[in-house]
Structures are given as structure tokens and as C-alpha cells.
Amino acid sequence: MNINSILFLLLITHTIAKMYTEDQLYNCKIPLQKQQHNDQKLKLHPIDCWIFILLSPVTFFGSSRIIYQFLKNTKLFGIPGDSVFVITITNGIESAAQFSTAIYVLVTNEAPMQNAFCEITGLATSIVFMISNLNIFVYAAYPLALIYNALESTARILRIFNYSLLALILLIVILGEKIVSTTLNGICAISATDSVTWDLIISLSYLFVFLLFATMSVLYAITFKKLIPKFSTMRQARGQYLRYYQMFIGFSIIMKLLLGIFSAINLLNCYIFLQAWLQVSGTLQNITQALCILGQTIIIFKDPSLNLLSSHSQTADNNIVNDNQEISLQQFNVLEQLHKEMKKTQVTSMLAGVQILRRQKQEDVIQYRDLVITEDQDGSGSNSSQGDLSELMEAISQPFTIEEIEECLVTNLNNQVLKEKLNIDQEIEVFSMRCILYAPKIFNYFITIDNIDIDDCFDLIKNSSKIDQFTGPDGGKSGEFFFFSYNNQLIIKTMRQSEVNTYKKRLYNFATYQVNNPLSLLNKIYGMYTFEREEQSNSRVHFLIMKNISLGIPRSQILRTYDMKGSEYDREVLIKKPSSDLSQMTLKDIDFFKIEQQLWIDESIYKKLNQSLINDSIFLEKQKLIDYSLLVMIIDWDQKENELQKHLDGQKMNIIPSIKEKGIYYHIAIIDYLQQWNVNKSLERKTKKIITMNIQLDTSAQEPDIYGKRFQEKLINRIVPLK
């Protein structure tokens, strides 16, 4: 903006200000009370009315067009579609309230004081004003939610806030008396009061909130720019989103800040200054608000996806229409695109980091206690990685030392290191990260004896198609995700910090136990890692590599999958989906006993399997762990018996043939065994009992000794009954 533009605006403002005279203190409450002026002066100035009449219809029809496109193409909803849709609706409602108020004042030449019209428009204006600002603020926070992988939870929280805020305002209106009246700028709203103190508090709070909003929005934009790298795979989406995002947020920040300033001037003038020419602040406030919602509508309407959608009706070729629609939806959900690209890059970085760490020399090993790693207490009262060794004193073999448990390998990963150490010709990009592998000698021991080729399983080129398809599948209640290697032999599973601490403290116990119990059905873990991005050193990704007990068999040959804990509460799936394809879902305890009754295996194996499962349960109980599951997969190997044989050579009890059906095998393992009994689990159990009004409820969460006993009696002894 040059000096001529500023002078022109000042001239316009001065001209408008001269239209106010001393006997036209339109919207000042104190003069009205002191001088017994007529209430009719609390109305819109004619200038305000004509501004609303000119601008509001444009906003309303623009908002209606955008809403129509959303309703016509429901895939536009999501992230950030939900926020944009709500902001558009609120802008349309507010423009209608502005237009109708202006017409009312011009026709009746009086303010809508304490009548039905004022109640309706005031209620609508206040509700949409608050909801719109909430959604703008959350929209500004989406980049941060993207960085911390919380887009879905942010969207859910936003919906809850919208409904809750609407319900709260309606409740206040129902219970309150004369809560809606004309405000200082001539618009009916809930916020109007007759108290000098409260009016000042409201105005200052308004200004403070939007100063905070502006500051946080700028920080979000800076954070987004810093943490989203300019990789070729995401450069276009990054640039497109930033252009649209910065335009919308920047415009909203400026307009909301001006609103706060004009509102404060208007308030101070009415209570303190009492200058007629300063009443121009009320008009400027109304003009700014009208321009704000109009500008937001125009920016939203200029979004590339909506422009493409609006041109579809002019396209004769239906195939072209469909193609354009797909492109537009992808463009509109560019934030989701970036989210997926970030996850793909994260997985690529994980695989590359695993390969590079595997190639580190053993002399590069250091002690992990020397690393700066946050040690969240898990309730055990000890930070020792050794844990309780009492149950291992009679172990036949103790091939590991505490020093080996506390060792780790550390390396740095970036695009240059990737090219140098992996010799990959293709363009593959990774985050700049610090990569840590815990207890490499321990995990290498199990990798060697189980004959696992991790380098091949996580080869970047062989996994390229898997990475391209990766969207971050949800890992159940924990929200962790799984990535399956290209041959489905191994799984990468992200971990919480508490799980990392739990496993580190018990790693010696687990390693020694599994060496001395080759028939153990505890699903093998072949490595535990921590990755720290250089741009996010305070935010880490923890993950482990573990065996996939299906052994890479095609999904079409997995007949049924059961995840069982020994509990009966909420442990039935088919009651909700009785006609579903069993191969496409994970069934639970009650489903198993209704369909399978038990494991149909040879009598010579019964006792060994039963005892192995009992031993594992006792071990986990002594480790104070709960919530583990027995995973049973029923797989048809009839067409691939030859392929199965190479897997059976290295298996002890994990793969057992069924005596009931030819070619059918049970794949069995105990999984998810890194959950400690803690305060949260105790509260979960009590909450479920309160909700169901059943003090005897057998919930999944129980103390370790109760959980272990139930696991043995109600699950192991039922599915593998001793004869």
C-alpha cells in the first residue's frame, strides 16, 4: 500500500466522520442514560445500511454457491473441508443478518430494540460469529496437526466444539432474560450489556483473543514451512496449500485485528471520549466485518478445486467431467495429500535407517544411557534396564550381559547419506534424522538363529509399491500404525514412549527367557528403534520390527483371524456384523468359542502347546504386564504345501496342522505384550464397571496376576484342553 492509497483512505474516513454531528451520538449508551435520549438512536447509520445492502448479497450468494458444491460433492468434506464448510455457512448467515438489519432500519427508521427481529438476528449473529472464529482458529492450526499426525483427532475435536458451543449458546438464551439487544455498532447480538466494566472486559478480551490468534497463526505458518521439506514428491502440494492457507489466514488476521481496534475505539468513545467524529469507528467496524466475510468467501471461491467443479457443467464429455472431479478433490484435500506424503516419507526414512544401521560396524556401538532420551516413568519405580531377574536365576543359558542390553548404534540419515551408503539410483528422499538401534547384539542373535533377512525384507526398491500405497493404517485404540514388508514376512509397528521404556527395562528378561524357552509363543521382536528428525528433535518416532505370524501368505488364504484375551466383556464381533465375510475381520473370544470351540490339533502336541502358553503367561505376569492377546490365524495352505515346508523348518509351536480339515494350519502367537498395569488401566476398569452398573464386570483391563490367571483358565485351558 503506497502513500497515495493511505491518504485516500484517510480522506474517505474524514469525509465519513464529518457526517456525524454532536446531536447524532447514535450508539452511545452512557449519553442515552444521562441525557434521557430516545432509544431510536441505537441504530445503524445510513452509511452502514448501504454498505450492508451492497456487500451482503454478494457474500450470501457466493456462500450459497460454495455450500451447493459441498452438498453436491460430499467428498469435499474432511480436512480441511469441514472447517471451510462451517466458515462458509456462518458467513452466509451473517450476511443475511446484516442485510435484513439494514433493510429494517431504512424502512422503519428505528432500531430493532427488544423485539422478535432483534432476538432472531442477534442470536444468529452471535452464534455464527463465535463458531466461525473457532473454525478459523482451528483451520490455522491444521499445519501443526499435520506435523504431529493428529489431523483426524483435530477434526473430531472441532466437531465436538461446534456442537457444544451451539448447545451452550442456546442454553444461555433459553435460561437468560433479555440477553439479546443492540450493540454499540447498531447490530443485535448476545454480547451487548449495560455495564461499563463488562463492556470494557468484553472489548479488551476480544482484542486479546485475536492478537493471540494472529500470533499463533503466524507461528503455525512458520512451523509448517520449517517442518514440511521441499521434496519433489511434495513440493507442489506444499506450495499450493501454503498459498491458499496464507492468503486466507493472513486476510483473516488483518481484518480481525482491525475489528478489535475499531471496536475498542467505539467503546472508549461512547464511555469516555464522547466525540461525535469518533463514531466513524462504529461504521468502520461494520464495514470491516462486511469486507471480512466477503473476502473470506471470495478466497474460498477462488480455490482451484471449486473453480474446476463449477466448470464441470459446461463440459460435454462425461469422462472428462469425472477426471476433473477427481483432480479437484485431490487439490481441495491437499492437506490430506501432504499428510500422506509425510507418512510415506517417514516410512521410507524408517526403512532406509534400518538398512544403514544394520550396516554399521560393531565398533561404533555406544551406551544408550549416554543419549539424551526422555525417560517417562512407567510406574515401576525403577529406571534400570535390567528389571527383576528373580524368575531367571534358574535359567540354563544366560548368553547376554547387561552391558550388551544397554548398547546401541547411532547414525545420521539424510539424502546424501542415503545415496552414499545404499547406492540407490532412483530418486528417493528421506528426512534428515538421527537413528538409534537399541541392543544390536541381542537382536542380531535372534535374527541369526531365526534366519531372518532384514535387508531384503526392507529393501527400499522392493518395497516401493508398498510405500506408494501406504496411508498410515490405524493400529487400533493406540493409534499406532503398521507397515508390512513387501513379502509380508516382517512388520514395522510404531510405539509409544511408555512402551519403549517398558521393553528396555525388561529386554534382558525377554532375551534370556526366549533363549531358554525355544517353544515360547511370544511373537519375536527383531529390533527396536528411535528416530529423531533434525527439525523436531523434541519429537521422536519409536518403532519395532517383529515377525508377521501369517508368514506372508496371501490374504485370500487367511480364513479367520482371532484376537483373544480371555475376557467376555465386549469380546464378540459377529453379534454386530452377523453376515460379514469372516476373512475380512478380526474376531474375538466369544466368536472363537461359537465357531471353532477349540484348536483341533494332534494329541501329541496338546500338552506341549498348553504348557508353552502357560509358561509365557506366567512370565508376562512376573513382568507386571497385561493386555496381551493370543492371536490365532486359521490359514489354508492346501495349494502351497511345498512353500509351507520351508517355514516349518524354523518353527517350533507357531504353526500347527489341523486334524479337522486337510491343508488347514493354525498360526499362533502372543502379541501386544508391552502394556504395564498403571493408573490409566485401573481407571479404565472402574469406568467400564460404572457405565455398565456391574461391579463384577470382567473387563479386559485387570491387575497382572488376575489377568494372567484368567488368560490361563478362561482361554488357554479352553482352546487347548488337556485330556
Automatic annotation (TrEMBL):
TM annotation in the entry: 50-71, 83-107, 127-148, 160-180, 200-223, 244-265
Signal peptide: 1-17
Domain PIPK: 368-719
GO cellular component terms, A-Z: plasma membrane
Record-level Gene Ontology MF annotations: 1-phosphatidylinositol-4-phosphate 5-kinase activity; ATP binding
One GO process term, biological-process aspect: phosphatidylinositol phosphate biosynthetic process
Keywords: ATP-binding, Kinase, Membrane, Nucleotide-binding, Signal, Transferase, Transmembrane, Transmembrane helix
PROSITE patterns in the record: PIPK (PS51455)
NAD as UniProt keyword: no
InterPro entries tied to this protein: PInositol-4-P-4/5-kinase_core (IPR002498), PInositol-4/5-P-5/4-kinase (IPR023610)
CDD domains recorded: PIPKc (cd00139)
UniProt-recorded name of the protein: PIPK domain-containing protein
Organism of derivation: Paramecium octaurelia
Biological classification of the source: Eukaryota, Sar, Alveolata, Ciliophora, Intramacronucleata
